[in-house]
């Protein structure tokens, strides 16, 4: 199935507590999901950095790129880019890119041949915002949120509308992507954020299954990708990625 976005033909495959407790838990709770805050105040997703998959294939002598239309609720929602997300502890950037792509598109890593990877963005950090799970005694503080959820509100909407902070630390209540209530806790142990783009190839346009993070997924002719409303960091990196991809093909 194909459709047009601004004259571009996109091909689809498939359906589309207390202070001492919080501080003591910070290192134990450090994981990928959360904001990294730059020295200029800019927030980037992934406390340990992020990675994405630049996955191409060939069809009818045309190079196609797997592109993702980001859901409106996500960072840079409404723009197009490549699937990816936060790096988790113990993961390499390549592993993170393949895992995130499978979660967001259904593409099995076994069907991807990785040819290269490179850091396409980096930033000096002030701190990261670690998500520390609520201690049992803190659940009473979250009662307005849990009550709203029991009445049918989404947990995300309930957290956003009530804006609860810890009475001693001032840390705000938030939730993880999996729906766990947490305190958003600053940690200055991470000094740099990076985004790594992994170059991969598959034998044919694979069937795609969008997750909640994707408004849409498609295989787009590589020569037409720049015409899409792209996420700004990806737009900046695209020429260099194409050059690196072409170099990998010649090796």
TrEMBL record:
Keywords: Hydrolase
Taxonomy, superkingdom: Bacteria
InterPro entries attached to this UniProt entry: Nudix_hydrolase (IPR020476), NUDIX_hydrolase-like_dom_sf (IPR015797), NUDIX_hydrolase_CS (IPR020084), NUDIX_hydrolase_dom (IPR000086)
Gene3D superfamilies: Nucleoside Triphosphate Pyrophosphohydrolase
Stored SUPFAM superfamilies: Nudix
Molecular function GO labels: hydrolase activity
Ranges where the Nudix hydrolase domain occurs: 46-242
Cofactor(s) for this UniProt protein: Mg(2+)
Family: Belongs to the Nudix hydrolase family.
Protein name: ABC-type transporter, ATPase subunit
Native species: Corynebacterium glyciniphilum AJ 3170
